[in-house]
Design brief:
three-stranded parallel beta sheet; mainly alpha
Protein backbone atom coordinates (compact mmCIF):
# COMPACT_ATOMS: atom_id res chain seq x y z
CA UNK A 1 0.00 0.00 0.00
CA UNK A 2 1.33 3.41 -1.00
CA UNK A 3 1.33 5.86 1.90
CA UNK A 4 -0.47 9.20 1.79
CA UNK A 5 -2.85 8.47 -1.06
CA UNK A 6 -4.68 11.78 -1.30
CA UNK A 7 -7.05 12.17 -4.23
CA UNK A 8 -8.72 15.38 -5.40
CA UNK A 9 -12.22 14.87 -6.80
CA UNK A 10 -14.47 17.46 -8.45
CA UNK A 11 -17.92 17.63 -6.89
CA UNK A 12 -20.08 20.51 -8.04
CA UNK A 13 -23.25 20.12 -6.03
CA UNK A 14 -25.76 17.53 -4.80
CA UNK A 15 -26.42 14.65 -7.24
CA UNK A 16 -28.81 16.35 -9.69
CA UNK A 17 -26.73 19.53 -9.96
CA UNK A 18 -23.42 17.69 -10.18
CA UNK A 19 -24.72 15.36 -12.88
CA UNK A 20 -26.05 18.29 -14.91
CA UNK A 21 -22.56 19.81 -14.88
CA UNK A 22 -20.43 16.65 -15.09
CA UNK A 23 -22.67 14.08 -16.77
CA UNK A 24 -25.53 11.72 -15.94
CA UNK A 25 -24.72 9.21 -13.20
CA UNK A 26 -21.29 10.66 -12.41
CA UNK A 27 -22.11 11.60 -8.81
CA UNK A 28 -23.19 8.05 -7.93
CA UNK A 29 -20.12 6.53 -9.61
CA UNK A 30 -17.85 8.86 -7.64
CA UNK A 31 -19.50 7.85 -4.36
CA UNK A 32 -19.28 4.16 -5.22
CA UNK A 33 -15.59 4.41 -6.10
CA UNK A 34 -14.84 6.25 -2.86
CA UNK A 35 -16.64 3.58 -0.86
CA UNK A 36 -14.62 0.83 -2.57
CA UNK A 37 -11.26 2.61 -2.26
CA UNK A 38 -8.69 2.52 0.51
CA UNK A 39 -7.56 6.11 0.17
CA UNK A 40 -6.00 7.90 3.12
CA UNK A 41 -7.88 11.09 2.32
CA UNK A 42 -10.26 12.49 -0.27
CA UNK A 43 -10.26 16.22 -0.99
CA UNK A 44 -13.41 17.36 -2.77
CA UNK A 45 -13.07 20.40 -5.01
CA UNK A 46 -16.19 22.41 -5.78
CA UNK A 47 -16.17 25.10 -8.46
CA UNK A 48 -18.88 27.54 -7.45
CA UNK A 49 -21.01 29.03 -10.21
CA UNK A 50 -24.47 30.55 -10.53
CA UNK A 51 -26.07 27.17 -11.13
CA UNK A 52 -24.80 25.46 -7.95
CA UNK A 53 -24.40 28.39 -5.54
CA UNK A 54 -27.79 27.87 -3.87
CA UNK A 55 -26.93 24.23 -3.09
CA UNK A 56 -23.53 24.59 -1.41
CA UNK A 57 -24.74 23.96 2.12
CA UNK A 58 -26.77 20.92 1.07
CA UNK A 59 -23.75 19.50 -0.78
CA UNK A 60 -21.32 20.18 2.05
CA UNK A 61 -23.59 18.61 4.65
CA UNK A 62 -23.64 15.40 2.63
CA UNK A 63 -19.91 15.33 1.83
CA UNK A 64 -18.94 16.02 5.44
CA UNK A 65 -20.39 12.62 6.37
CA UNK A 66 -17.69 10.89 4.33
CA UNK A 67 -14.83 9.70 6.51
CA UNK A 68 -11.37 11.23 5.94
CA UNK A 69 -12.58 13.87 3.52
CA UNK A 70 -12.15 17.62 3.16
CA UNK A 71 -13.51 20.28 0.84
CA UNK A 72 -11.96 23.14 -1.15
CA UNK A 73 -13.98 25.81 -2.92
CA UNK A 74 -12.96 27.60 -6.12
CA UNK A 75 -14.97 30.04 -8.21
CA UNK A 76 -15.94 29.61 -11.84
CA UNK A 77 -13.30 31.20 -14.07
CA UNK A 78 -14.63 32.43 -17.43
CA UNK A 79 -12.90 32.54 -20.79
CA UNK A 80 -12.44 35.74 -22.74
CA UNK A 81 -14.44 34.22 -25.60
CA UNK A 82 -16.31 31.00 -26.25
CA UNK A 83 -16.29 28.91 -29.41
CA UNK A 84 -18.87 26.43 -30.54
CA UNK A 85 -17.61 22.89 -29.94
CA UNK A 86 -19.06 19.85 -31.70
CA UNK A 87 -21.10 17.60 -29.37
CA UNK A 88 -20.70 20.11 -26.51
CA UNK A 89 -23.92 22.14 -26.04
CA UNK A 90 -22.88 24.21 -23.02
CA UNK A 91 -20.67 26.96 -24.44
CA UNK A 92 -23.47 29.53 -24.48
CA UNK A 93 -24.45 28.69 -20.92
CA UNK A 94 -20.86 29.01 -19.70
CA UNK A 95 -20.54 32.36 -21.41
CA UNK A 96 -23.79 33.85 -20.15
CA UNK A 97 -25.03 32.02 -17.07
CA UNK A 98 -22.24 30.68 -14.84
CA UNK A 99 -19.86 33.54 -13.99
CA UNK A 100 -20.32 36.07 -11.20
CA UNK A 101 -20.25 39.84 -11.29
CA UNK A 102 -17.82 41.52 -8.89
CA UNK A 103 -20.63 42.20 -6.41
CA UNK A 104 -21.88 38.62 -6.64
CA UNK A 105 -18.34 37.31 -6.19
CA UNK A 106 -17.98 39.05 -2.84
CA UNK A 107 -21.31 37.64 -1.67
CA UNK A 108 -20.20 34.13 -2.64
CA UNK A 109 -17.03 34.53 -0.60
CA UNK A 110 -19.07 35.68 2.40
CA UNK A 111 -21.14 32.53 2.06
CA UNK A 112 -18.00 30.35 1.98
CA UNK A 113 -16.81 32.02 5.17
CA UNK A 114 -20.21 31.33 6.77
CA UNK A 115 -19.95 27.69 5.73
CA UNK A 116 -16.53 27.41 7.34
CA UNK A 117 -18.13 28.36 10.64
CA UNK A 118 -21.02 25.97 10.02
CA UNK A 119 -18.71 23.04 9.24
CA UNK A 120 -15.63 23.72 11.41
CA UNK A 121 -12.44 22.03 10.24
CA UNK A 122 -13.97 20.63 7.05
CA UNK A 123 -13.47 23.41 4.48
CA UNK A 124 -9.76 23.90 3.77
CA UNK A 125 -9.79 27.39 2.24
CA UNK A 126 -7.90 29.63 4.69
CA UNK A 127 -9.79 32.78 5.71
CA UNK A 128 -6.99 34.98 4.36
CA UNK A 129 -7.07 33.26 0.97
CA UNK A 130 -10.85 33.77 0.81
CA UNK A 131 -10.37 37.45 1.63
CA UNK A 132 -7.76 37.78 -1.13
CA UNK A 133 -10.20 36.33 -3.68
CA UNK A 134 -12.41 39.37 -3.13
CA UNK A 135 -12.74 42.24 -5.57
CA UNK A 136 -10.36 44.45 -3.59
CA UNK A 137 -7.35 42.20 -4.25
CA UNK A 138 -8.11 39.83 -7.13
CA UNK A 139 -6.54 41.62 -10.08
CA UNK A 140 -3.34 42.60 -8.27
CA UNK A 141 -2.80 38.93 -7.41
CA UNK A 142 -3.68 37.50 -10.80
CA UNK A 143 -1.31 39.90 -12.58
CA UNK A 144 1.52 38.30 -10.61
CA UNK A 145 0.28 34.70 -10.76
CA UNK A 146 3.05 32.11 -10.70
CA UNK A 147 0.95 29.14 -11.83
CA UNK A 148 2.62 28.93 -15.29
CA UNK A 149 6.01 28.46 -13.63
CA UNK A 150 5.00 26.18 -10.75
CA UNK A 151 2.42 23.86 -12.29
CA UNK A 152 2.10 21.50 -15.24
CA UNK A 153 -1.35 21.04 -16.77
CA UNK A 154 -1.90 18.71 -19.73
CA UNK A 155 -4.83 18.36 -22.11
CA UNK A 156 -6.26 15.09 -23.45
CA UNK A 157 -3.49 14.98 -26.06
CA UNK A 158 -0.87 15.35 -23.29
CA UNK A 159 0.04 18.78 -24.60
CA UNK A 160 0.73 21.50 -22.06
CA UNK A 161 -2.08 23.91 -21.22
CA UNK A 162 -1.05 27.50 -20.58
CA UNK A 163 -1.25 29.67 -18.63
CA UNK A 164 -2.90 27.14 -16.28
CA UNK A 165 -5.28 24.20 -16.08
CA UNK A 166 -8.13 26.32 -17.55
CA UNK A 167 -6.12 26.69 -20.75
CA UNK A 168 -5.74 29.25 -23.52
CA UNK A 169 -8.11 32.20 -23.49
CA UNK A 170 -8.81 32.22 -19.75
CA UNK A 171 -9.91 35.58 -18.35
CA UNK A 172 -7.38 35.90 -15.54
CA UNK A 173 -8.99 39.11 -14.25
CA UNK A 174 -11.83 36.95 -12.95
CA UNK A 175 -9.66 34.04 -11.81
CA UNK A 176 -11.44 31.82 -9.31
CA UNK A 177 -8.68 29.25 -8.88
CA UNK A 178 -7.90 28.62 -5.23
CA UNK A 179 -4.11 28.35 -5.44
CA UNK A 180 -2.92 31.84 -6.52
CA UNK A 181 -4.68 33.27 -3.48
CA UNK A 182 -3.52 30.73 -0.93
CA UNK A 183 0.01 31.11 -2.32
CA UNK A 184 -0.21 34.88 -1.80
CA UNK A 185 -1.56 34.32 1.72
CA UNK A 186 1.42 32.08 2.41
CA UNK A 187 3.79 34.84 1.26
CA UNK A 188 2.02 37.11 3.74
CA UNK A 189 2.88 34.53 6.43
CA UNK A 190 -0.73 33.72 7.17
CA UNK A 191 -0.69 30.92 9.81
CA UNK A 192 -3.72 29.06 8.44
CA UNK A 193 -2.25 29.03 4.93
CA UNK A 194 1.09 27.81 6.27
CA UNK A 195 -0.71 24.95 8.00
CA UNK A 196 -2.46 24.12 4.73
CA UNK A 197 0.85 23.69 2.91
CA UNK A 198 2.49 21.85 5.80
CA UNK A 199 -0.25 19.22 5.66
CA UNK A 200 0.63 18.58 2.01
CA UNK A 201 -2.66 19.69 0.44
CA UNK A 202 -0.88 21.64 -2.31
Amino acid sequence: KIANQNVYISIDGPPAIHDYIRGKGVYQRVRENINKSKLDRVVFCCTVNKRNFAYLEEMTRELARIKNSDLIFALFTPLKSYKKIARYPYSDEQRADLGFSWEERDRVLEEILRMKRLFPGYILNPDKAIELMGTKYTQDITRNCNMPSRSLALDVKLERKLPCVVGTGVDCDYCGCFFPYVTKALRLQDPESLEFFQKGYH
